[in-house]
Design a protein that fits this description.
This protein is α+β, with helices and mostly antiparallel strands. Helices cover 27% and strands 29% of the residues. The longest helix has 19 residues, at 149-167.
Length: 322
């Protein structure tokens, strides 16, 4: 670990630590401590410096920390390999590369920003610095490829539960993978998988989760400002690390019994579409329908205005509530 990475856990919003004491605990020079403080500041970490007292984190500081996330995970940290980066191209792209090279299940890559974040249908996913969590998880489940949708829906339920627990706000899920607060999207999920051709089962799946923790500085871009929202209204120390840990704990609680569909109750009761008229959008155009429910395979059951019924899978349509 670098001096910067080792220094961060020593800093606290509740007390000052002198450069001399930090240098002693890290077994480095005071100049190395000063350099590490400046590196952290450049990365967005808010650090106060007071003569004769030392350094202290500001109360509104919120920087993603692998060490803090591992601490909050408790026993689950033994099964995960957490890596936190400031900026990456795409956590999913990078983790798929690691998966192809044999990285173990439970490898997790978390970034504070992405330059090439992607959502479903190859849409660009807005990933600004210091306001969100962009996380990918490498999974190697022993399950048929057609059950991969369970991973996405379990993740949506996990994010909804975690965001609700930490923010106190009611969350909803717009089938299949959008998590909402006050009708605005705070999370998108993209699961990408590789198939073992011989067995017909999954070789691996990379689960990508992008969460708007805060409204970014300057607001959301014009094209999404009316549909995007955030989990929290104000920054607080370690809040994004707490949210990342809460999502991981919630997801792995569901993942441990994934094919038993234990997550479906949480998913269904938060549905933003069941019982509502929707527009089902496909390559052939839009057709109006009423959403009836979500079946055991996480398909959306609908009744079209002409009386026909169907069970829609995640890969073939998108929905717009009307």
């Amino acid at each position: 670990m670098t001096v910067k990475e080792r220094l961060l856990p020593l800093l606290s919003e509740n007390r000052f630590i002198s450069g001399e004491q930090a240098a002693k605990e890290l077994n480095v020079s005071r100049a190395a401590v000063w350099k590490a403080v400046e590196q952290l500041r450049r990365e967005g970490c808010k650090i106060e410096a007071v003569t004769n007292k030392g350094y202290r984190l500001r109360y509104d500081n919120d920087i993603l920390q692998a060490g803090k996330i591992n601490e909050l995970l408790g026993p689950l940290s033994n099964a995960l390999y957490i890596n936190v980066e400031r900026t990456v191209t795409s956590t999913n792209i990078l983790l798929k590369e690691k998966a192809a090279l044999g990285a173990p299940e439970g490898t997790v890559l978390i970034a504070s920003s992405q330059t090439s974040g992607r959502g479903r249908f190859a849409r660009k996913f807005y990933s600004p610095e210091n306001s969100g969590i962009y996380m990918s998880i490498l999974l190697r489940p022993r399950m048929p490829a057609e059950n991969a949708v369970l991973i996405t829906t379990a993740a949506a339920a996990a994010v909804a539960v975690a965001a609700e627990n930490l923010s106190g706000k009611k969350t909803e899920i717009k089938w299949v993978n959008d998590v909402l607060i006050n009708g605005k999207k705070i999370c998108g999920i993209l699961t990408e998988a590789a198939l073992d051709v011989e067995s017909g089962s999954l070789d691996y799946a990379v689960l990508g989760i992008g969460i708007n923790a805060y409204t970014p500085s300057g607001g959301f871009p014009e094209e999404i400002k009316n549909i995007a929202g955030a989990v929290f209204e104000q920054k607080a120390a370690d809040l994004r690390s707490r949210l990342a840990a809460e999502v991981l704990k919630s997801f792995y609680g569901f993942y441990s019994t994934l094919e038993g569909r234990g997550f479906l109750e949480e998913y269904r009761r938060r549905s933003a579409v069941i019982g509502k008229r929707i527009s089902v959008i496909s390559r052939d155009g839009a057709v109006f329908a009423t959403a009836l429910g979500i079946d055991e395979n996480c398909r959306l059951q609908v009744k079209y205005d002409d009386g026909r019924t169907a069970a829609l899978s995640s890969g073939e349509i998108s929905t717009k509530i009307i």
